[in-house]
Amino acid sequence: HYDGDVNPDISEKNFPVNPALFTTVGSKLFHFNRVMTKAQIESAIRSEGHEPDPIERLLAYGMENPDEQRKGLIVALGSSWVNPRGSRLVPFLYEYDRGRGVGLCWGSPEGRWVEIYRFLASPQVQR
C-alpha cells in the first residue's frame, strides 16, 4: 500500500510482527509542535492515557489514512531496531516526490525531536 520507498531494513527479521496488532482502533496522533526529548514525548503521551504505537499499528494507520502522512511525518516510538553500527532507529511514515514511504530515523533516548514530527499512540491497556 506504499507507492514510494520502504527502507530495506524494515523487515520481519528486524521488526518481528504480531498480526493481531495490525489495527488502528483507538490510535491517536500526537503533535507537540516543539522540540522535545523522547522521554518528554513518552511522558506527555502517557499522561493522556496512551502508549507509543508499534510498527504494526503505524503501517495499518498509513494504509487506512494515506493522506495523514502527506501532512507530516508520523513516528512509531513503540518499535525500534539497533543497526550494526549501534544506532537505535524507529519507523516513520513520510511523503516525498515519488509517493508515500516508510523509513527509519534516529530514535535514541537522548535525542531531540523537532516540531515537524507527530507520534502515533493508542490507549494504554489496563492490567
Written description of the protein model:
This protein is α+β, with helices and mostly antiparallel strands and 127 residues long. It contains 3 helices and 9 strands, in the order ββαβααββββββ. Strands 1, 3, 4, 5, 6, 7 and 9 form a 7-stranded mixed sheet that branches. Strands 2-8 form a two-stranded antiparallel sheet. The longest helix is centred in the middle third of the chain and has 10 residues. It is globular and about 35 Å long. The termini are far apart. 29% of the residues are buried.
Q: Layout of SSEs?
A:
Elements: E1 28-30, E2 36-37, H1 38-47, E3 50-52, H2 55-64, H3 68-71, E4 74-75, E5 81-82, E6 88-96, E7 99-106, E8 112-113, E9 118-123
Parallel strand pairs: 4-9
Antiparallel strand pairs: 1-9, 2-8, 3-9, 4-6, 5-6, 6-7
Q: What Rg, in angstroms, do the CA atoms define?
A: 14 Å
Following the backbone from N to C, one meets helices and strands in this order, namely: EEHEHHEEEEEE
- How many helical stretches? 3
State the assembly state of the protein chains.
single chain
The count of strands amounts to 9
Strand portion, in percent? 25-35%
**Shape, principal axes of CA atoms:** globular
Low-confidence stretches: none
Helix/strand structural class: alpha+beta
Give the overall pLDDT as a whole number.
Answer: 91
Helical content class: 10-25%
Distance between the termini: 34 Å
Largest sheet, strands/sense/barrel? 7 strands, mixed
